[in-house]
Write a structure and sequence with these properties.
Chain A: One of its GO terms (biological process) is respiratory electron transport chain. Chain A: Keywords: 2Fe-2S, 4Fe-4S, Iron, Iron-sulfur, Metal-binding, Oxidoreductase. The complex is a heterodimer of chains A (250) and B (266). Chain A has two domains: 3-102, Ubiquitin-like (UB roll) (Roll), CATH 3.10.20.30; 105-246, Alpha-helical ferredoxin (Fumarate Reductase Iron-sulfur Protein, Chain B, domain 2, Orthogonal Bundle), CATH 1.10.1060. Chain A has ten helices and seven strands. Chain A has helices at 32-42, 105-112, 132-139, 149-153, 155-158, 170-180, 189-195, 207-211, 218-234, 237-246, and strands at residues 3-13, 16-26, 62-65, 68-71, 85-89, 96-98, 101-102. In chain A, 46% of the residues are buried. Chain B is mainly alpha-helical and 266 residues long. Chain B has helices at 25-47, 93-105, 107-116, 147-167, 180-197, 200-208, 217-229, 233-256; strands spanning 52-53, 58-59, 178-179, 263-265. Classes of the chains: A alpha+beta (250), B mainly alpha (266). Chains A and B meet through strand 2, helix 3, helix 5, helix 8 and helix 9 of A and helix 3 and helix 6 of B.
Chain lengths: 250, 266
C-alpha cells in the first residue's frame, strides 16, 4: 500500500531557512528516514541528513518529528494518518549546520570534562575484581547510543542557551552516575556532579526519559539517585556526621 | 537577543513548538487535581470539625493524630500532647505540615508541579515562558533536598495511621465491627504505604547509596523490593491523593450526619 505523504522539511543553515513542503511516496513498513532518503533521491538531492545504521543503534539520525525529538529510523510511518502533514526539523537545542544536520560538539566537549574511570591507586590492571550484582545497576546506562535526544529535549539548555556552560545535560550526568555507582571507581563524582556539571539545574521533569530510544530510565535510575547521593554529601547533616564518626565506606 | 530555541545559530523555524498532539492535556489534568487537593485540604484543616466518628472510631487521616486539648472527646486516642490551640491555628497543623511537606518535596510531585503549575516546561519540547532558569540550586527550591526528612516523618505518620485503622474495627455495641468506612480507611492505608515505600528517598536510604550491594545482602533485598515499587511511584502518588480525599470526605459526611455508615458487620 503506497500513498503520497505530505512532508514539511526544514531547509537552511545557520544564516536562516524555512519549512519546505514536499509530497513523497510512502510504502508499507517504512520509517521517516526511508522517506527522507526517497526525498533526497527524487526531489532534493542537496538535502543534508546525518544517518548511519538505520537500526536505532548508532544515534546519528536524531531530529524532531512533529515537534518531538526522535530517531528518524525508529519512527514508523504507520503512526501517522495518510493525510497528516509530517514536519521534520533538525534538533533545536544545537547549532544547525545545514538542513537536518546539527553541530553536536557541545556534547563531546562535556564528555571530555568527565574524568575517566578511576580505580583505587593500589589496584593494578589485572587485579580488578567485582561481582555482577555490584555492576548491573549501572549497566543499564551503558545502553546509551549517544543520540543526544535527551540533551535536545532538556529544557535547561533547550530554553536557556546561557546554561550550556554550567550544565552538562542528562546524558553526561548519567555517565557520572554510572561511574559513581561503579564498585571500583574511587573518584569524587558527587562533588563534581553538583559543582561542575550542574546537577542542581535538573528539575526532574523526565523529558530525557520520555524521549530515550533505548528506554533507559535516566531520571529514576541515574539522576534522582545521583541527587540523593549529593544530598548525603551536601545537605544531610545526619549522614555527614555518621560518615565522619564511622569513617566507613559504603 | 533571541532566546531558547530561537537562539543565534540554531535552526530558524519561527514557531515555538511544532508538536501537533494534545500536549497540554496531561499538565492541565494534573494541575486541576493538584489545585483541587490544595483548596480541599486548606478548607478542611481550617474547619476544625467533622473529623471523628465516635460510634465507629473513624478518624480522618488529615487530623491524625489528634493530640491537642481542642480535639473532640475520644479522637485523641494517643493522648493530648498540647494544650488548646487558638481558633486561628488548625490543630492538625503538624500533620498537615509533614504530609504536605512529604508530597511537596516528592520527586513525582516536583515533576507534576513544575509541569502543571510552573510550566518549566509544561511538556517536552514545549518552551517554558521563563526568561531565566536556575533550577534547584538556590533558595527556596534548594530546600527540596530535605525530602528524606519528610519521608521519615511520613513513616511515623504512616504507623499512626495503621493504629487508627485498627481502631476503626469498632462495632456499634463496642466490640469488633466492620463498616464501609473501615474498608475505605484500609484501602487508603494500603495506597499511602505503597506511595511512601516506593519513594525515591526510601530507595536511596534502604540501599541505593551503597557502592557494593554484595557486601550488604539484606539491604540489597530491601533495595530490590523498593525498586520494584518505584516505577509506579507517580501512580501511587495520585491514587493515594484521591483516596485521602475520599476517606476524609466520607468520614466528614458520616461525622456531620449527612448519611450514616453502611455497616457490614456489627
Amino acid at each position: 500500500m503506497s500513498y503520497k505523504g505530505k512532508f514539511r522539511v526544514w531547509r537552511g543553515d545557520s544564516e536562516g531557512g524555512d519549512l519546505k513542503d514536499y509530497e513523497v511516496e510512502v510504502n508499507e513498513g517504512e520509517v521517516v528516514l526511508d522517506v527522507i532518503h526517497r526525498l533526497q533521491a527524487t526531489q532534493a538531492p542537496d538535502l543534508a541528513v546525518r544517518w548511519n545504521c538505520k537500526a536505532g543503534k548508532c544515534g546519528s539520525c536524531s531530529a524532531e518529528i512533529n515537534g518531538m525529538p526522535k530517531l528518524m529510523c525508529m519512527c514508523r510511518m504507520n503512526t501517522f494518518e495518510e493525510d497528516e502533514v509530517v514536519t521534520v526539523t533538525p534538533m533545536r537545542t544545537f547549532p544547525v549546520m545545514r538542513d537536518l544536520v546539527t553541530d553536536v560538539s557541545y556534547n563531546y566537549q562535556k564528555a571530555r570534562e568527565i574524568p575517566a574511570f578511576t580505580p583505587p591507586a593500589d589496584l593494578k590492571p589485572g587485579e580488578y575484581r567485582m561481582q555482577q550484582v555490584d555492576v548491573e545497576r549501572s549497566q543499564e546506562f551503558r545502553k546509551c547510543i549517544e543520540c543526544f535526544l535527551c540533551q535536545d529535549t532538556c529544557h535547561v539548555i533547550r530554553d536557556h542557551e546561557e546554561n550550556k556552560e554550567s550544565f552538562s545535560g542528562p546524558r553526561f550526568l548519567m555517565r557520572i552516575a554510572e561511574l559513581d555507582m561503579h564498585p571500583l571507581d574511587a573518584a569524587d563524582r558527587q562533588h563534581e556532579a553538583q559543582e561542575q556539571h550542574g546537577l542542581g539545574f535538573c528539575n526532574i521533569t523526565k523529558c530525557c526519559t520520555e524521549v530515550c530510544p533505548e528506554h533507559i530510565k535516566i531520571t529514576d535510575n541515574a539522576l534522582i539517585p545521583m541527587k540523593e547521593r549529593v544530598v548525603d554529601r551536601k545537605y544531610d547533616p545526619i549522614v555527614w556526621l555518621g560518615n565522619k564518626i564511622r569513617r566507613r565506606g559504603a | 537577543m533571541a532566546l531558547g530555541v530561537e537562539s543565534t545559530g540554531r535552526a530558524s523555524i519561527g514557531q515555538k513548538t511544532l508538536r501537533t498532539d494534545r500536549w497540554w492535556l496531561a499538565p492541565l489534568r494534573i494541575g486541576v487535581i493538584l489545585g483541587f487537593f490544595v483548596v480541599y485540604a486548606t478548607v478542611r484543616i481550617f474547619m476544625n470539625k467533622w473529623y471523628w466518628v465516635d460510634e465507629f472510631h473513624y478518624l480522618t487521616p488529615l487530623y491524625s493524630p489528634c493530640v491537642t486539648e481542642s480535639c473532640v472527646p475520644g479522637s485523641s486516642h494517643l493522648g493530648t500532647w498540647f494544650g488548646e490551640f487558638p481558633r486561628v491555628i488548625p490543630f492538625s497543623i503538624i500533620t498537615f505540615a509533614v504530609l504536605a511537606g512529604f508530597r511537596g518535596t516528592c520527586y513525582y510531585y516536583r515533576k507534576a508541579g513544575y509541569r502543571s503549575l510552573f510550566f518549566a516546561p509544561a511538556a517536552c519540547a514545549v518552551p517554558e515562558p521563563h526568561k531565566k532558569y536556575t533550577g534547584e540550586r538556590k533558595f527556596p527550591l534548594i530546600a527540596l533536598n530535605l525530602h528524606r526528612y519528610f519521608f521519615y516523618g511520613a513513616l511515623v505518620f504512616g504507623v499512626l495511621n495503621v493504629y487508627d485503622g485498627i481502631q476503626a474495627f469498632h462495632g456499634e455495641d463496642g466490640g469488633f465491627g466492620i463498616g464501609l468506612g473501615t474498608l475505605i480507611i484500609w484501602i487508603n492505608l494500603v495506597m499511602l504505604w505503597l506511595y511512601t515505600l516506593s519513594c525515591h528517598a526510601c530507595r536511596h536510604i534502604v540501599g541505593g547509596r551503597l557502592k557494593n550491594f554484595s557486601k550488604h545482602p539484606l539491604r540489597y533485598r530491601y533495595w530490590t523490593f523498593v525498586s520494584k515499587l518505584n516505577p509506579k511511584h507517580g501512580t501511587y502518588a495520585m491514587i493515594s491523593l484521591v483516596t485521602v480525599i475520599a476517606t476524609d470526605a466520607y468520614i466528614m459526611a458520616v461525622s456531620a450526619g449527612w448519611f450514616s455508615d453502611l455497616r457490614i458487620f456489627n
